[in-house]
Amino acid sequence: MLNGIAPLLIFSFKPQLTASLFSAIEGIPIIGDILPGIGIPIPIYLDERLTGIYIESESKAIDIDTQVTVRYDGKKPNVDQRGLSNLVTVNMLANRDSIMLTVLLAMNDMVFTRVVKQDYSVSYLNGSTAVFNALLHGFSTQAGTNDDLIRITLQISKANQENPNPANLTSQLPKITGAIPVAVP
Amino acid sequence: MEFDWYKIFNLLDFEKTSLVSRIFSVTLEGRGAKDILVVKGNELSLVYEDVLLPIEFEEENPFVREGSEGTYAVYKDIDSNVWIGIEVQE
Known about the structure:
A: mainly beta; B: four-stranded antiparallel beta sheet
């Protein structure tokens, strides 16, 4: 297995460089390019014996939007496709007393504060499933009433790794005000 | 009446595609992201904010129609570019 002894979840957070430090290293060849991108990886093994968290089930789903537009001259229809989502969903069970569960909850809270800047990444390795530098799409936990287990659902999105959407689908259009539009030559 | 005009597409280029309809997803300056449906029936028309705007309907150019949210217009210029107009609220 690529992950080694157990399935592995890695949260990686990029260091938040202060403006003065960033400007000091920006011009340095190689280091200036690499250092801002290096993250601090925090691995979490998903193994019942090691961390008290284990994987109950895993699934993958791809959602694609397909728009078919017919032509009135009888030629084959025009088909536009774009990727909507590419998700890996991991359902886990954790012991309520697990320390790593607390760490996992804290990691997701940290990710939540960084979603706009996207200066984090999530990697997941489990047998044949290997996802590197992906984004968190969803996270939820549910406590059972009849046992001391916590049910966790983690969704990882690979949307940042492919570009299945046409680049010029949405464009900014300038306005011209008047009784009729008169284009500036 | 004054309108804010936005150039959406070229009529000749659209007719070459032989498409019956097409949605243009655009970001209008000052108004945000909008979807404009272009549909070919008896006339080639735009649908904006649920208002049907046929291009040069009964030879009116620009063709103006009032909707529930404002007054809209469609205009075809001499180069066959199609513009959508939204009345400027004073």
